[in-house]
Amino acid sequence: MSKKAFIFLPDGVGLRNFALTNFNAIGTTLGYEMVYWNNTPFKIKEELGYDEVNITNHQLHPWTTVYTRARKRCELNVFDKKFKETVYNTYNFPQSYKGIKNIIKSLNVDFLVATKSTEKGVESIRTKIKKLERSTSKYEYCKKQLLEHKPDIVFCTNPRPTQAIAPILAAQDLGIPTASFIFSWDNLPKATTLIEPDFYFVWSDYMKKELLQYCPYVQPEQVFVTGTPQFESHFDTSLLQSKEDFYKSHHLDLEKKYICFSGDDIVTSPLDQYYLEDLAISVRELNQQGYNLGIIYRKCPVDFTNRYDAVLQQYQDVIVSIDPLWRPVGTSWNEIMPTKEDFALQSNICEHTEFVGNIASSMVFDFVAHDKSCLFFDYEQPQLQKGIRDIGQNYRYIHFRSMPNKEAALFVYDKKELTSIVKAILDGKQSNVPVGKKWFDVVVGMEPTKASENIWEGINSIVKK
Fold first, then answer.
1. Is the entire prediction scored with pTM above 0.90?
2. In angstroms, rounded to a whole number, what is the distance separating the alpha carbons of residues 180 and 134?
3. Which residue has the higher pLDDT, 270 or 134?
4. In the structure, what pLDDT confidence band is assigned to residue 290 with cuts at 50, 70 and 90?
5. What are the contacts of 324-331 at 24+ separation with CB within 8 A?
6. Residue 337: pLDDT above 80?
7. Which of 63, 255, 271, 380 is least buried, going by the fewest C-beta atoms within 10 A?
């Protein structure tokens, strides 16, 4: 008798790992009836041919946003006190006080933060959020869908969205086992896990330790260490083109060596375009010294700004843009959907460039999977002024403490040193790959090619209980 798994997509983040990889094929082979419980605008049946049940009711309780915002801020306050830190609150972003609705919401959040920033206070907020969401029409709507389709498990692909709360509660109240995948390496110290499923799937032992540290209501037996499908494509050699074919398909100069600049979103790196310009200036300098270099600029898929345009125009002699193969199916950042083709594109960029330069991105792991170095910019730009976020803050975040040591990446602390560091990487005199691989193992886990299989093993063991 076949088992039915609801793969719950509260937003588009989970598509990449669980709809565009071999995850579906593995589940089908194991005898599962795979159904995507789809809260996104992406048409899974039409685009991919997979069965789906669409969630068309997106109503949150009017107070849920207030309480979830307050929960994060209170948890971060608790973390700072509990672990004797000041860094956790830097994960917060300023609230808006523009317009009556925003003022009312923000003042209520402020009141809750002032009165509930204790472990008991956080527990009361968690309880309140569940009570609020159980009272919504979305909760009843999801309950009805679950009663109709009778899945054996609900597997949530991303624990962060408020839209995930009511569906998971509905499943739990019907006695259906629930699980969630921690999708990013920085989710846990940021206090962004809003749902409380029966089981959790994490990348590595390091992440399991974090989960138990930051979510004291979770027990070790609820956690599966599986790896993440995010990096599986980098080990699939069938995706790789020859250098000649890759260069030809993107109109690159076969005589040049290219460096990848991986763009960041405007929140992480608001002055990102100036770091691209600095790299372009260094490339021009090295070309005058006899090198023959270019830059491939891969934009952040969810960056909608035109802030790079002037730099791309001014340095078009050395910079070539190769955009990610993502496409919008909505208007917000989590409605920009990846494609299968982008797996191959990203792997080929890693394979056919010399190294990557960026700001604090997990692209360090993508490149080290191809035995390529990563250069992290860590100096201020002269354009930095009050109200603009300093990128140096990124490297002080808790998730960067997972580095075995500072040699896990190549840091540039002074713009004047950039050209010499780039030259040293190209000449084989500097590399972070040996320590970077150790960092990869710590964060991603020891079996990067088996993540999808490991996740299914976990799902299977839950369903059999």
1. yes
2. 19
3. 134
4. very high
5. 324/298, 324/299, 326/301, 329/12, 329/40, 329/41, 329/42, 329/43, 330/12, 330/40, 330/41
6. no
7. 255
